[in-house]
Amino acid sequence: MEMLSWHEKAESILNWLFQSAKIVWAITSRENVQFVSINDQFDTTNGINNKDKSAYIQSRTRIPLINLFNKQVFMETKMKVEVVLDMKAQHGEFMWPRASFGYQKSNENPNQLVPNLVAAVIVRKIFDMAASSNGVTGIVRYLNERNFPTPIKHAKAQGLNGNFDDGNGSWNSRSMKCILTNRTYTGILVQGKEKWAVEATHEPLVDPIAFDAIQKAFQARAYNVAPQGQPADNILKGKVICGCCGGKMQRKRGTCHADWYFFTCIIRNRLGADRCIRMYVREEDIFNAIYRQLKDYVNKHYITNSAYKQKIQKYARQIADITQCKTTAWINAMEHYEQYVQGKINKDELRAVQDIANQSKEALIQTTESKTAYEKQYDCRLYCQRYSRQWR
């Protein structure tokens, strides 16, 4: 394959830019879209759409070249920003918009982390309990029973604005694991695209040796868990609700039999025994209940194919008749309006004719909506019938 010279490459790029601009101009002209650039002194009404040949040629050549140089400036600016951010990461300067729970940005230097007096106490307590061989669930229950603020609640109390989803406002295993595996609490700052790790950038909240011991304990627990194979897809995820406390139930595999699953409420473990009686249900029982509901729905709304076709044909005839009546009524209303303008009829007579036209319009809308609803009902019946067979 023959290599292109520098001039040939430049010519190909310029031709591509001109052709792209030509297509954009054609579409914008057809749709009557106007583009204005004050800095570039460009207006499509005085450039592209101008009948003056000199202005037209100027707009065709100048704008693609400006776009090319603007793209180059953008790439250079992007590279400069990345270089600056990497330098800050290498020097251990904090760059994230919000500090980890337990810290806050220094008032004197926003790139420096300092412990938060309230949150730091909670973080130290979490690591102390983990170092004393307390599990994640036990720590979560301890914090919830004593109403310790969660990270999002603490951030909102510190003036955090925005629509943040804090769930049910309680501690959970996921946020606890994020804290217990965050090396920032040892005084090491890991950030940047290249994951620069800089030590001794801020005051640690946990001893590095204790932190490493906790990580090894986590790994040992994960290693001692017996492998149970690849779990099946959880199609009911987030849809099974506890009848006692209203919380979402979690799916777990049976301990003795690896081929069956059950759903259980974990609010009791997280918030205490007085919050829920810990509901339990097998996944197979849920599927059987869904199957019975689908079967009842299909039997109640069963529609044969022949009945469906007859009903649709009936709707089609009704729509055609109502459409014809609507057209006649609106023509009649326009004729009466002309008579009203000429003074041949009064306003009440005109309104009576207009009411008939409006009634025909509403009748057409209602019949069309009824036809659409009937079609959806039939589609839903087919869907339920097909999937109910899979759950038998």
> Given the helix and strand composition, which structural class is it?
mainly alpha
Overall 3D geometry?
extended
Helix content estimate: 55-70%
Which oligomerization state do the chains in this entry correspond to? Answer: single chain
Order of helices and strands: HEEHEEHHHHEEHEEHEHHH
Strand content: 5-15%
Please count the beta strands (DSSP E, at least 2 residues each).
9
Integer tally of domains: 3
What's the Cα radius of gyration?
A: 35 Å
Major sheet summary line:
3 strands, antiparallel
Taking strands numbered 1, 2, ... along the chain, how are they ordered across the largest sheet? 7-8-9
CATH topology of the largest domain: Hect, E3 ligase catalytic domain fold
Report on this model:
With 392 residues, this protein is mainly alpha-helical. The chain folds into three domains: 6-90, no CATH class; 103-224, Alpha-Beta Complex (Hect, E3 ligase catalytic domain fold); 301-390. Helices cover 57% and strands 7% of the residues. The chain has eleven helices and nine strands. The chain is extended. The two termini are 62 Å apart.
